[in-house]
Amino acid sequence: MRWLLFSAFLFSFTILSAQNNQLAQQYFRDGEYEKSAELYLALSKERPDNSFYFDRYIASLLQLQRFDDAESALKKQLRKRPEEVALYVKYGQLLEEKFDEAGAKVQYQKAVDELPADQFRITQLANAFIGMTKYEYAIKVYEKGSQLLKKKGLFSYNLGDLYRRKGDKEPMISNYLDAVGNQPKRARQVQTYFQRYLDKDGLQEAQKQLYTRIQEADSKETTYPEMLAWVFIQLKDYKAALRQARALDKRLDENGERVLSIGQLAANSRDYETAIDAYDYIIENKSPSTAIYLDAKREGLLTRRRAITDGYDYTEEDLRILEASYLEFLDEFGTNPASARIAIQLAELEALYLNDLDKAINILSDVVKAPGVNMKTQASAKLALADYYLMQGEVWESTLLYSQVDKKFKEDLLGHEARFRNARLSYFRGDFEWAQSQFDVLKASTSRLIANDALDLSVFILDNLGLDTSSLALQTYADAELLVFQNRFDEAFTTLDELKKSFPGHELEDDIVYLKADIFLKRRRYEEAAAAYQQVINDYPESIRLDNSLWKLAGLYEKQLDDKAKAQELYETLFIDYSGSILAVEARKKYRELRGDAVQ
């Protein structure tokens, strides 16, 4: 019976204590400090081991400016519990409230001086200083705490966090790296902080410190080399990152994934030389039977192609070397489901760069017939094959293939693309009304690119179809566009000149200038292309070609004409003045990239 009575009493006491705690918190939040002080004093007497209640009692007294009561309570508590050095911080806070700065500093320093070799008390005291944003004192606490506990680096992460808050980059980096050395699992968290708070100079400081640590560390240790590779990636120094990745791959006998990742990052940043080195390393060091070997082969070919064709900066010899690499790949792996996309790329090289349409058509015919090829890959091959037939003038073969893809993938983007190309073919042939009806339907495509192109052509036909009863001017322009599509540039120039001569002052004048600019660009006559795009911008401010002209002119200045400032200016004009354009979002990304922002 006595046990039951005691249990009932204890339960009732616990319930009452919890209720008083909630009520005290409510009073404190509501600013009723007289009531909260009374309740927290009672709670602190009931639970003298719970420092929170006493802290809130003192906080309530300070809010009431009952400084004498607070000082008396603190002195009494310090006599009873001298090991609670965080009380000195409260005492210092009280003295600051009384404008006794010197006395407050004495108390803060006393807290540090009286610090016991107790991890809980060390953390408690540091948190008390942090709560008052007194980071220098918190740093002293953690540094002394490490010495007292004789555990170097125990509080490195906490110190890194404090130096980060203070904005002291060098010790912040040093302590965070110490923390990673002690607990490698913290590496990702530290990388997040570095990415968020370090600029280029800060990352270079991290690089310098990591070099020193790697030289001093055990040769088997990989944490710091991995961190260094990450820093190089942030600095976009992919060549240095690749050196680290290759060394780690060899040391850990990895499968090459780390190296492949660096290659992909480098390729995406147009550092093609480093990307190719990464893929070649995998090809030379990994077994041909592994999946990553095939990935490296594929990515290597694609990157070599981009290195040659990106920006139209290549020679005939470059193209032949690339062609040989593609043929070597297909000789090794054959034309099959795994290599089908490579074959499609080779066909594009033959058709659009080496002007060998027959070879391109033969390659794609093999892809279309190959058993087991993914249906969408096969459809992509058919679309490319249809384009090359059209370049040869085989209109019926071309429209048949477009229609096959349209029928099989009616609700898919591939079907929309096929329908668009078929409608464009009708436009080339002069069937403007039917073509426009198809473009009007495609304006609702889920692909913004197809929808935008369809809208442009629909508006273009509508604007020009009624200008003369014969629609001869529009047909002549369509003929010129087809000639450009077929890479018959001299004939296209002649056709455009005849159009301008036959129809002086026609609404198509801006389109003529724009198409000539595209021809100059394809022929790598960059200065003339830039002048023509600029003419569209200057002379035809209402032209539907204006946003495209801005985009292409900005690209020319960025890549070929080496004037990044001018490119940045043009991208800014595009996304500000023509925000409704499909190109506006990409222009904003380019602008931020050129400005040096981190673009996701």
From TrEMBL:
<dbReference type="InterPro" id="IPR019734">
    <property type="entry name" value="TPR_rpt"/>
</dbReference>
<feature type="signal peptide">
    <location>
        <begin position="1"/>
        <end position="18"/>
    </location>
</feature>
<dbReference type="InterPro" id="IPR051685">
    <property type="entry name" value="Ycf3/AcsC/BcsC/TPR_MFPF"/>
</dbReference>
<dbReference type="Pfam" id="PF13432">
    <property type="entry name" value="TPR_16"/>
</dbReference>
<dbReference type="InterPro" id="IPR011990">
    <property type="entry name" value="TPR-like_helical_dom_sf"/>
</dbReference>
<keyword id="KW-0732">Signal</keyword>
<keyword id="KW-0677">Repeat</keyword>
<dbReference type="Pfam" id="PF13181">
    <property type="entry name" value="TPR_8"/>
</dbReference>
<keyword id="KW-0802">TPR repeat</keyword>
<protein>
    <submittedName>
        <fullName>Tetratricopeptide repeat-containing protein</fullName>
    </submittedName>
</protein>
